[in-house]
């Protein structure tokens, strides 16, 4: 790697100042993407800003009324180790356990996963399905951006050069709701998703009150397929309508052919995964009280 | 055979074990020496290109850079043919692969190297070297390279056909043919004939430790090498040859090695580090990155294979034909010969023709990978055998038993089998509980296959020195990849009649032990063990003479048995006698240098249960059993380990591993993320069953076991997928997308 | 601007340690090249093989993806700190007895990773062990004897507690 200097600021203000002083600087949370990319030469920087000492990025706070505040640097393992968070958002805890393997989960964060903006990010579809929102802070103040609007292309986000993703806010879970993220990988762990589907459903009196469906690895960004979720609204959760929603998700996918899969296969997988995830989420919603 | 062995068949803790579980064992990259410089290599980005110009000025100018080398720094001696243990090759090919001269023949081909104060500076400097290339069209598969209009990799490469030089410029280095009987008549006699084509992708041995070398070109002119290698003497001979030095001027110290499987036999880094050390006067270390391991070492050939087999209605195989076109990579030497030796080795067939083609392509120059060439061939043969069994309505094992090779069966490549365990392995499969266990559930299936590897003998040396406390030091030259220093020590212990813990094995450098061939070819426990036995016998002979001196009797009247020396009512234990060597004439050192010829081949079979997800094509291994003829299992845990390791490599080869190449010859997945080797979560326990049909050519009946176990798994899994999903795949890997596409095609049909 | 190394104060295997490293040097490089703790191995340098596993503030991480400077103020356990003085840890003993290593290059990473599992979860199932260790690649053993060694070490730990 080329030489870079390093700082670990302890406040947001200090971090923003450093960003301004070092154009082209990179933010370091878990490091599992950044270091690999610096080493492979995919990116270069002369200055690395370690954000893990900034308190707002380490918050993991849940209350049943307000929902979950997840600091952008909180590593995956903290999510699934936290009993309250795992009980409230089992799908999120499960997704955090899918990224890489145990060692990666010891460092990688969902915020970092999102900000790295890989189309295949495993946690982003579920965050979209859960209606999560990003809290972004910059010199001009702060703003909130829906997760589905955060990524603009492979490796690109709405963040301005001096802005930081500080935390994610997942709304309080409605009663009788369930969510699930399923991905397809050739092995059983470690792989980048060939395709992934994150869904969340809320039931009301036996029908689907709302459904949100998002896909991984089949578009330049994580893909929110609004129309597939809308199709389910007001419908009783029956196999036929679930199948149609899944088919819609498959059609909405815009994958490329690369070393992980071709277009036809990935579209097919999107439909399969969406259907399976919907069934799982609906089952959870039906159990939930 | 019902020998009662004291040591053989037990499971002592390996002698190097504590060092390896505490992190104290020193592997090549752990070696420290004062003044060490680190080096990095610049590699070609093109699959096929002419080198027009190399400008190293910017690299030299970077602070911290101490030296830069290219092929021009090799001694500019005229080319000659050399044999460094893998057959005759032009020296220019061997040098050319280490540092390219004139042309680069694959993406990743080394072009230049830089030594600097640390690896980061070295890497940055390497990137500053400016190379002007003229890109040339490339060929990436054997069929493409064999076309008459294919671009040629080597202007001077002319096809050898049936042993004779044809003078034809081509990418086909060699075409051989094995003939037995009359295949035309054989197929005419057949009631059923199946002919299929198969494609296998390039795969890598996947050792976890990247290649490394530390070299000091000392001020006294000796070149000192510390490296992780399967063959210290191969390194010595190759480095000496490349640098035009006498072998005595090179000393190679083999460090512990983190896996090889054949891929750490060729030499890549040592000559480069030597040239850099010569220029700088300091020791230089090079450690490959994982990407360099994929792109700059020796994977195993991808292949195109056509197999045709004919059977009579009663199940007798009457004819077999194979066309094996293997990719050699950039330089000739694909292991298609061994493929030809093994392709029909399990069967007694009177009419056979085998055509083998060694074809150069613009990929890294291939190296051996655990039974090289045999796995590709078995994928083809065992798939066709499975189809024929189904056509005949015969049980797959019964069909194989009806045609199994036995002692005296003639192989198409010439030899007649000596005592061999093919039938015993097949019977063991049939008798194994896994074979008859119910397999319930949809989309599940069971497949079997059998494979063969002939194993190697080659040269080994050994000395055993007796200590006054009754223990011995055993010095040998086989680097220990899998526990062999212990299996060798156990054989010496058995002969000497002392516990295995009393034999202290030591793997020595090339100055300290006699010539020893590579750790590979399943030869180490066999041949170096053979040497250890002979050295131990030499020790026994000398100690009998010492006892005779003490008892003032003739040496001929002294008997040695199970560690006790006796004569006429006198007796001394090994330890008691060892304490008295000083007074009876001085130290006792036993020696042996062997080249055992009576090598025992090994048959291996496996049973695989799979489940296929019909919506994604993903194949899960539910249960796997490996069965192999070990002749005599010296240390059963390490024999089981070889069977399990080879099986899992075979599973990876079957399901997910491949070099995914772009049209322009770049490997797109040169990382352990996308080159998908099995993880612990992808596998069940791997059950093993050791068969022992002793090899008459070894004192204890040992057959090499390292390799044959990787041969049958891909075919067994293909056969299992057929029973689970109704589709036969003829391409490796049988990755999920390929299985899904096969299922879709079958549904349309 | 002058390129300055950074001074890092950390705890390694229970001892306070100070070292200098360049910011671009990973924790793995710092351990091996700066501190001569060569027991932790490099296999891929991008987090995919687990050979470089260490325990970092109680969690296993791939040290190739951690910077040396990030060790400031942290507690790290490497393979060199697993044995209890002259006494091998049960995992080390079981790896030897079960022959759970062949070439041994992945062994330090597996032992450190497995120790973290047994420290936090007594009596893990086979599936749990396999999942926990999925980030550790072994090419020699096919994992069978490694899993058995971990199971036996877990059983030993249960016995001691009773």
Question: How would you explain this protein's 3D organization?
Answer:
- The complex is a heterotrimer of chains A (289), B (749) and C (162).
- Chain A is of the alpha+beta class and 289 residues long.
- Chain A contains eleven helices and 14 strands.
- Chain A has a five-stranded antiparallel β-sheet with strand order 4-5-10-6-7, with helices on one face. A four-stranded antiparallel β-sheet of chain A has the order 11-12-13-14.
- Chain B has 749 residues and is of the alpha+beta class.
- Chain B is 28% helix and 26% strand.
- In chain B, the strands form seven sheets. An eight-stranded mixed β-sheet of chain B has the order 10-9-11-19-18-17-12-31, sandwiched between helices. Chain B has a seven-stranded mixed β-sheet with strand order 3-7-1-16-13-14-15. A four-stranded mixed β-sheet of chain B has the order 20-28-29-30, sandwiched between helices.
- Chain B is globular, with a radius of gyration of 27 Å.
- In chain B, 62% of the residues are buried.
- Chain C starts with 5 loop residues before the first strand and ends with a helix.
- In chain C, strand 3 and strand 4 form a beta hairpin.
- With 162 residues, chain C is α+β, with helices and mostly antiparallel strands.
- In chain C, helix 2 (90-97) packs across helix 5 (144-161).
- Chain C has two domains: 6-81, Ubiquitin-like (UB roll), CATH 3.10.20.30; 90-161, Orthogonal Bundle (DNA polymerase, domain 1), CATH 1.10.150.
- The model of chain C has no long low-confidence stretch (mean pLDDT 96).
- Chain C has a five-stranded mixed β-sheet with strand order 2-1-5-3-4, sandwiched between helices.
- Chains in contact: A-B, A-C, B-C.
The number of helical elements of chain B comes to 21
Total of domains of chain B: 3
Specify which chain pair forms the largest interface. B-C, 58 and 57 residues
* Percentage beta strand of chain C: 15-25%
Structural class of chain B: alpha+beta
Largest sheet of chain C: 5 strands, mixed
CATH class of the largest domain in chain B: Alpha Beta
Keywords:
heterotrimer; A: 289 residues; alpha+beta; Uridine Diphospho-n-acetylenolpyruvylglucosamine Reductase, domain 2; Uridine Diphospho-n-acetylenolpyruvylglucosamine Reductase, domain 3; Enolase-like, domain 1; 3 domains; 5-stranded antiparallel beta sheet; 4-stranded antiparallel beta sheet; 14 strands; B: 749 residues; Aldehyde Oxidoreductase, domain 4; Aldehyde Oxidoreductase, domain 3; 8-stranded mixed beta sheet; 7-stranded mixed beta sheet; 31 strands; 28% helix; globular
């Amino acid at each position: 790697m080329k030489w870079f200097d390093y700082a670990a600021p302890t406040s947001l203000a200090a971090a923003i100042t450093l960003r301004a002083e070092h154009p082209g600087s990179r933010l370091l949370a878990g490091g599992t993407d950044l270091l690999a990319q610096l080493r492979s030469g995919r990116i270069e920087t002369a200055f690395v800003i370690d954000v893990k000492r900034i308190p707002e990025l380490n918050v993991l706070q849940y209350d049943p009324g307000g929902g979950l505040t997840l600091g952008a640097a909180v590593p995956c393992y903290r999510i699934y180790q936290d009993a309250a968070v795992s009980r409230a958002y089992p799908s999120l805890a499960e997704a955090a356990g899918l990224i890489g393997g145990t060692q990666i989960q010891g460092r990688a964060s969902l915020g970092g996963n999102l900000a790295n903006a890989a189309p295949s990010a495993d946690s982003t579809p579920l965050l979209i399905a859960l209606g999560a929102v990003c809290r972004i802070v910059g010199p001009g103040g702060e703003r909130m951006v829906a997760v589905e609007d955060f990524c603009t292309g492979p490796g690109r986000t709405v963040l301005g050069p001096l802005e930081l993703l500080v935390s994610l806010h997942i709304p309080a879970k409605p009663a009788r709701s369930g969510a699930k993220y399923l991905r397809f990988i050739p092995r059983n762990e470690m792989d980048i998703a060939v395709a992934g589907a994150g869904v969340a459903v809320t039931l009301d009196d036996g029908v689907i009150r709302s459904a949100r469906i998002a896909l991984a690895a089949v578009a330049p960004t994580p893909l929110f397929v609004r129309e597939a979720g809308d199709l389910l609204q007001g419908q009783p959760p029956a196999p036929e309508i679930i199948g149609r929603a899944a088919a819609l998700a498959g059609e909405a996918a815009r994958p490329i052919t690369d070393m992980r899969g071709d277009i036809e296969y990935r579209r097919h997988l999107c439909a399969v995964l969406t259907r399976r995830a919907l069934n799982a989420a609906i089952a959870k919603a039906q159990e939930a009280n | 055979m019902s020998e009662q062995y004291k040591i053989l068949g037990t499971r002592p803790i390996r002698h190097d074990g504590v060092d390896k579980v505490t992190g104290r064992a020193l592997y090549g990259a752990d070696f420290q020496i004062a003044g060490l410089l680190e080096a990095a290599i610049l590699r070609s980005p093109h699959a096929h290109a002419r080198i027009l110009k190399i400008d190293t000025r910017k690299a030299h100018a970077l602070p911290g850079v101490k030296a830069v080398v290219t092929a021009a720094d090799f001694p500019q001696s005229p080319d000659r043919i050399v044999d460094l243990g893998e057959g005759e090759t032009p020296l220019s090919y061997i040098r050319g692969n280490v540092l390219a001269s004139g042309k680069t023949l694959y993406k990743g081909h080394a072009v230049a190297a830089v030594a600097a104060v640390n690896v980061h500076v070295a890497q940055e400097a390497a990137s500053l070297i400016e190379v002007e290339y003229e890109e040339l069209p490339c060929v990436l598969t054997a069929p493409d390279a064999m076309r008459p209009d294919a671009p040629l990799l080597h202007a001077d490469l002319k096809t050898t056909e049936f042993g004779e030089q044809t003078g034809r410029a081509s990418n086909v280095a060699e075409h051989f043919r094995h003939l037995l009987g009359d295949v035309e008549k054989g197929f005419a006699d057949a009631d059923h004939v199946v002919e299929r084509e198969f494609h296998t992708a390039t795969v890598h041995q996947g050792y976890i430790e990247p290649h490394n070398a530390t070299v000091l070109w000392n001020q006294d002119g000796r070149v000192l090498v510390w490296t992780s290698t399967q063959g210290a003497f191969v390194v010595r001979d190759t480095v000496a040859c490349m640098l035009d030095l006498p072998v005595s001027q090179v000393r190679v110290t083999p460090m512990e090695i983190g896996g090889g499987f054949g891929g750490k036999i060729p030499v890549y880094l040592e000559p480069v580090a030597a040239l850099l050390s010569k220029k700088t006067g300091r020791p230089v270390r090079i450690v490959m990155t994982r990407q360099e391991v994929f792109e700059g070492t020796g994977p195993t050939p991808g292949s195109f294979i056509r197999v045709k087999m004919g059977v009579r209605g009663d199940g007798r195989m009457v004819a077999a034909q194979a066309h094996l076109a293997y990719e050699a990579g950039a330089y000739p030497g694909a292991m298609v010969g061994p493929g030809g030796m093994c392709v029909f080795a399990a069967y007694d067939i009177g009419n056979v023709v085998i055509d083998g083609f060694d074809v150069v392509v613009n990929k890294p120059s291939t190296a051996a990978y655990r039974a090289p060439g045999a796995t590709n061939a078995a994928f083809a043969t065992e798939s066709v055998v499975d189809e024929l069994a189904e056509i005949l309505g015969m049980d797959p094992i019964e069909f194989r038993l009806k045609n199994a090779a036995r002692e005296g069966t003639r192989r198409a490549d010439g030899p007649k089998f000596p005592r061999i365990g093919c039938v015993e392995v097949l019977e063991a499969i049939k008798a194994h509980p896994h074979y008859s266990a119910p397999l319930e559930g949809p989309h599940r299936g069971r497949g079997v296959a059998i494979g063969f590897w002939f194993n190697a003998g080659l040269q080994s040396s050994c000395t055993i020195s007796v200590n006054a406390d009754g223990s011995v030091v055993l010095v040998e030259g086989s680097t220990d990849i899998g526990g062999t220093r212990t299996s060798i020590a156990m054989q010496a212990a058995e002969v000497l009649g002392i516990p295995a813990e009393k034999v202290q094995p030591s793997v020595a450098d090339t100055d300290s032990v006699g010539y020893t061939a590579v750790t590979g070819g399943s030869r180490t426990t066999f041949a170096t063990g053979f040497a250890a036995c002979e050295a131990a016998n030499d020790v026994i002979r000398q100690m009998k003479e010492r006892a005779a001196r003490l008892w003032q009797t003739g040496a001929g009247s002294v008997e040695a048995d199970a560690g006790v020396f006796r004569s006429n009512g006198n007796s001394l234990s090994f330890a008691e006698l060892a304490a008295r060597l000083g007074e009876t004439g001085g130290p006792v050192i036993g020696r042996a240098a062997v080249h055992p010829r009576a090598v025992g081949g090994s048959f291996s079979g496996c049973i695989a249960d799979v489940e296929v997800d019909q919506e994604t094509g993903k194949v899960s291994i539910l249960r796997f059993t490996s069965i192999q003829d070990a002749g005599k299992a010296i240390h059963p845990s390490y024999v089981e380990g070889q069977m399990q390791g080879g099986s899992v490599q075979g599973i990876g080869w079957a399901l997910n591993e491949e070099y995914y190449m772009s049209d322009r010859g770049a490997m797109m997945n040169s990382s352990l993320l996308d080159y998908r080797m099995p993880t612990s979560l992808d596998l069940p326990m791997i059950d093993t069953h050791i068969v022992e049909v002793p090899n008459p050519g070894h004192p204890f009946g040992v057959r090499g076991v390292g390799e044959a176990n990787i041969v049958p798994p891909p075919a067994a899994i293909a056969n299992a997928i057929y029973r689970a999903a109704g589709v036969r795949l003829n391409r490796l890997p049988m990755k999920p997308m390929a299985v899904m596409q096969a299922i879709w095609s079958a549904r349309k049909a | 601007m002058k390129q300055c190394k950074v001074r890092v104060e950390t705890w390694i295997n229970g001892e306070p340690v100070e070292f200098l490293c360049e910011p671009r040097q990973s924790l793995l490089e710092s351990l091996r090249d700066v501190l001569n703790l060569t027991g932790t191995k490099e296999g891929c340098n991008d987090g995919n093989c687990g050979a470089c596993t260490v325990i970092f503030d109680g969690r296993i991480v791939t040290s190739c993806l951690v910077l040396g400077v990030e060790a400031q103020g942290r507690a790290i356990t490497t393979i060199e700190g697993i044995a209890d003085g002259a006494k091998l840890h049960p995992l080390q003993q079981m790896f030897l007895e079960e022959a759970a290593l062949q070439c041994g290059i992945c062994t330090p990473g597996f032992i450190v990773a497995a120790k973290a599992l047994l420290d936090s979860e007594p009596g893990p199932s086979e599936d749990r062990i396999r999942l926990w260790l999925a980030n550790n690649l072994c090419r020699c053993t096919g994992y069978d004897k490694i899993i058995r060694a971990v199971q036996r070490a877990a059983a030993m730990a249960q016995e001691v507690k009773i």
